[in-house]
Amino acid sequence: MKRMKRTGTIFIVLLILAIVAACNGGNKAPADSGSGGDGSAQADGASSGDFKKLGEKPLTLKFYSTGATFTDVEFEVMIAGPIRAKYPNVTIERITPAATTTPEEVLSTHVPDIIFGSVQQRVIRTGAYQDLRELIKKHNFDESRLKPIGYNYIKEITKGKGDAVLALPFNINQHVMYYNKDIFDKFGVPYPTEKQLTWDEAVELGTKLTRTENGVHYIGLVVDNLTGLAKSLRLPYLDRQTGQAALDTPDWLRVFELQKRIFEIPGYITPEGTWNWTRDHFMKDQNIAIRVSWLANMVGPLEELRQQGVEFNWDIAPAPNFSDQLGKTREAQIHAIAINSQSQHKDEAFQVIAEILSDEGQRIIAKNGRVPAIINPELEKDYGADIPVLQGKTVQNVFVGEPLQEHYIHPYESEISKRLLEAAEDLAVKGLDVNSAIRKATEAINKDVETLKTTIGQY
């Protein structure tokens, strides 16, 4: 009997100890299951959060960039390097396919964990984008910190189709006017200032700088053709409801007429018929006096060029606009960061994204030449501070004028955009008048749309 009492007492004591141990254990971090965990981030973007999953095991996350300029230097400085510095066990490995490989081909043969770039309709169709709503809630991510111009655009893309959140904005890719000071000096033309020019003033300036001298063909003003000019007025290419061409409007007529005026500047088109002047003409040939284009399209490549030992004297001014639109610049393209729906590391990938979108992470991208996606005016003061190619540039002109939210990108837009390049060529070298060029492009686009309805399907 005494043995039985003693045994019962021992059992009760052991039971109590087990309960106490279990209770205490509930206050400790759970063991790593290798499949995510809650890793809750702080509401401010978790710049100082303890991401246990990122800190416990060696982890490689694969990164794929599509539809946006993002150099290897930028990838290392803005993403891979900062994450590695804070979490030495975490490696962000970039997938770099051949230039001719399509996003569909990449996503069918690789499983990137993180997808960077503009949110493309062709990628949406593959199902590669993970709906982030549950991860946002799970990790207590504060969406109110994101600039509406970026986040509203991303949410607009899937409005009416489940309202999924397919990505979070990484940076706001604004337009500026780049100008080659050496060409201005050569022809004795004063530099642009912080004053936003009208397009009439920009064309007049470009005319003064377009000439041939010592065998070099100098071009005064390059605007990224019709698609670039259309961004001054936030013009869609296709009607959102019908899918038909949306070019037969007064605003598109203004754009075609302005493009025609630029092409008609004496000397703009070479005797050999060259008319489509590009980034390389500005950066490498250095025969473009003014180019109006994206920040991301130029700053990163200019820094790469500088690292290769090629430098020249250029600066930044505000992007011009129509006289009734002064105070606004062009559409701001949204570069976003997303998670692959097939990733085996969704939680960890989201924690990396939250770190990149923290104040600390966004300060890094600002210092290296990208306009942050979060609401924090202090970061504008840091813009360009750490990227050598922007030293001495008038970077405050980046923030002159209000960028427009990007127009809704129709599911067929990327497939029919070639028709606008053809229309520009019709204006430049084929002698078409503005109305004929619009009519021809409209007919070509509508034929394309009928084909796309069968190959891609109804949107």
From TrEMBL:
A Pfam family reported for this protein in Swiss-Prot or TrEMBL: SBP_bac_1
GO biological process per UniProt: transmembrane transport
InterPro entries: Bact_solute-bd_prot1 (IPR050490), SBP (IPR006059), SBP_1_CS (IPR006061)
Region span, Disordered: 29-49
Gene3D superfamilies in the record: Periplasmic binding protein-like II
Low complexity bias spans: 40-49
Keyword Signal appears in the UniProt entry: yes
Xref: PROSITE patterns: PROKAR_LIPOPROTEIN, SBP_BACTERIAL_1
Keyword list, A-Z: Signal, Transport
Similarity annotation: Belongs to the bacterial solute-binding protein 1 family.
UniProt-recorded name of the protein: ABC transporter substrate-binding protein
Source species: Paenibacillus naphthalenovorans
